Amino acid sequence: MGDSRLVIEQLKGNFKIRSPKLANIHAKIRVLLMKFTNLNLKWIEREKNKEADQLCNIAYLKYTNRRT
User: Fold this and answer.
1) What pairs with residue 31 in β-bridges?
2) How far apart are the first and last CA of the chain?
3) 9, 15 in Cβ contact below 8 A?
4) What region, left, alpha or beta, does residue 19 occupy, with left being phi > 0 and alpha being psi -120 to 50 degrees?
5) 61 near 67, Cβ under 8 Å?
6) Is 67 helix (H, G, I), strand (E, B) or coil?
7) Euclidean distance between CA atoms 30 and 20, whole angstroms
8) What is the pLDDT along the chain (68 residues), one digit of tens a residue?
9) How many CA atoms lie within 13 A of 34 on its CB side?
10) Dist CA 49 CA 56 (whole Å)
């Protein structure tokens, strides 16, 4: 589940990847996703998924070395 409709639709193959940088990441993720036998990608509205949104924001800040 995710709150980014664009990312979910890209991973499902419904939307194109326009950024060359993201294309490499997308390809790696697709390979990893194939390791799961029962996987369902589903878009959840951000308003209905506040806890996941907060966790993503924390992870992003740590990844980019920004302070919370």
Assistant:
1) none
2) 25
3) yes
4) beta
5) yes
6) coil
7) 15
8) 566 788 889 989 899 998 888 899 999 999 999 999 998 888 888 788 888 888 888 888 888 876 65
9) 6
10) 11
Q: What is this structure's pTM?
A: 0.62
What is the CB neighbour count within 10 angstroms for residue 54? 10
Rounded CA-CA distance 26/17 in Å is 8
58, 67 contact by CB (below 8 A) = no
Q: Which two tokens stand for residue 15?
A: 């939307």
User: For the chain, how many residues are written?
Assistant: 68
Q: Which residues contact 6 (CB under 8 A, 6 or more apart)?
A: 15
Would you list the DSSP string of 14-48?
SS----HHHHHHHHHHHHHHTT-SS----B--GGG
Contact by Cβ (8 Å): 10, 17: yes
